[in-house]
Amino acid sequence: MLVRTQPNARLHALAAVLVTFAGWALEVDAAGWRHLAAAIAAVWAAEAFNTAFELLCDVVHPDYHPMVRDAKDAAAGAVLAVSLGAAAVGVFTLGPPLWAWLSEAQAANSR
Ligand SMILES: Nc1ncnc2c1ncn2[C@@H]1O[C@H](COP(=O)(O)OP(=O)(O)OP(=O)(O)O)[C@@H](O)[C@H]1O
After folding, report:
1. pLDDT per position as a tens digit, 55-86
2. Would you say the CB of residue 72 lies under 6 angstroms from ligand 1?
3. Which residue segment(s) compose the domain that 38 sits in?
4. Which of 39, 44, 67, 72 can pair with 89 through a Cys bridge, CB separation 3.0 to 4.6 Å?
5. ipTM of the predicted assembly exceeds 0.85
6. Which amino acid positions bind a divalent metal cation, per UniProt (predicted)?
7. Cα separation of 12 and 46, whole Å?
């Protein structure tokens, strides 16, 4: 349902697939997989709660209300915060092996 109805969830799904592929290609170790899996799960959980909250708001108060606006904005902010944290986990987990792979490829090219 999330992927079908929420454009952001489709982006999260694409990011999860890309990160999983990168982790496999870069041979991330068990600790790295733990961090990546926790980050991906946290983003999906936040997205699911945000969607549930938006649907509830729309049922309880379909008309415009500044408090509904603020409540929805706060819930969307939570998704953004978790997504930024997940991006940082991705950079710190995939960055070093990616850097090592790029350096190796460059050294092999210059030989
Ligand atoms: N009933 C409402 N009253 C006031 N503002 C609202 C109301 N419904 C939505 N908004 C505003 O519009 C924004 C988008 O709300 P909507 O329910 O369309 O979520 P969405 O487009 O699925 O967003 P998201 O990207 O957070 O999933 C909210 O963050 C809020 O600022």
Report:
1. 999 999 999 999 999 999 999 999 999 999 99
2. yes
3. 2-110
4. 39
5. yes
6. 54
7. 11
